[in-house]
Amino acid sequence: MDNLKELLEKWYATEEQWNDWRWQISNRITNVDKLSQFVHLTPKEKDGIAACLKKFRMAITPYYASLIKSEDRQCPIRMQAVPNPKELVCTRGDMRDPLHEDVDSPVPGLTHRYPDRVLLLVTDCCSMYCRHCTRRRIAGQNDRSLPKAQLDRAFSYIRSNPTIRDVVISGGDPFTLADEQLEYILKKLRAIKHVEVIRFGTRTPVVLPQRITPELCNMLEKYHPVWINTHFNHPREITPASSAAVARLAKAGIPVNNQSVLLKGINDRAHIMKKLVQGLLKIRIRPYYLYQCDLSEGIGHFRTSVSTGIEIMENLRGHTSGLAVPTYVIDAPGGGGKIPIGPNYLLSQGQGKTVLRNFEGKVYLYTEPDAEEGKNTTSNLGIAGLMQSNDVILNTEEKMIIAKGS
Ligand code: SF4
Prior knowledge:
Blueprint: H1 4-11, H2 15-18, H3 21-26, H4 32-38, H5 43-53, H6 62-65, H7 76-81, E1 110-111, E2 117-121, H8 148-159, E3 166-170, H9 179-190, E4 197-201, H10 204-207, H11 214-220, E5 226-230, H12 240-251, E6 256-261, H13 270-282, E7 285-291, H14 306-314, E8 327-332, E9 337-340, E10 346-350, E11 353-357, E12 363-367, H15 371-377, H16 382-388, H17 396-404
Parallel strand pairs: 2-3, 3-4, 4-5, 5-6, 6-7, 7-8
Antiparallel strand pairs: 1-2, 8-9, 10-11, 11-12
């Protein structure tokens, strides 16, 4: 860090303390008075933040606070970390649990929506409370991890459901747990034969990179395949410290993917998103999803139109490496799951021909096998089957077979 000396003086910290994740957590900014020492606030802003804190938590690690430009109200780091009284306003469509994570929960802490994977919420604690958090109904409410008895119930559920092959450990932020607690969870999951893949959802590399210690990485690599999905939203979050944290994970053989949220005033312009995804590839993170901002309560001021997201995707696809292009999704309200959306490149289709446009708007014709040739090579199920039959509706049994992946 270029300004490390200045930072250490400001925080009355030694370099060793600054690099210690436990020091970072115990010195988080959690009230207005402390915040005003590091971020310029008018009296009106202070009152607005205080009002907000009656409903939602604030916690900003010294590291993440050091990325805020103190005088800039539109600073993308500040907007993600500092409460805004707009959070107290309910917008049209707002819901407490838009993704129905609580409804689809067979045992506390576990969401089972998709057939082969579950979401395990192991804590409600985060090192930094993001202002746009989808799970703000739980994040930071009690600041505690899932009690062991409930964890064990979740393991029993996973054990008795052999279709579950993928477990996503999230929260809150699971990396706020100690290594020993994480290892307990990993050991239990690895003892279940049908659990093939373990994934973590964590914002730690972005907001508390000091937590990605060599000891944590050594422990994680014992339980491979372990994947990490993280959450960078702006190119300014890619720093020497966050890059080094990701490098430590890569060294331990852990693939890191990124899930950004499209946020008004933060990353809703194509050039910013392009800089972000290209920067992520440079530090070996694969841009995975770009989420349309969910309908959680009090985050309406962060939402953009869907057409804004489509426009951004239009400016990525073909304009930069496909590896850098995330899938833009709406996580359907009511627990419908992620639905990919984006620009339409298929212009027309019929009589063995498909008309497409490329990223420059040029139009091309692709010749398909004719009906007879195609019959022997494509499945006669699903949409392909419907195209070849005289039916006018896809029968639901076939639809179920396709959904089950047979
Ligand atoms: S780290 Fe994740 S769970 Fe925690 S506040 Fe941020 S978005 Fe929400």
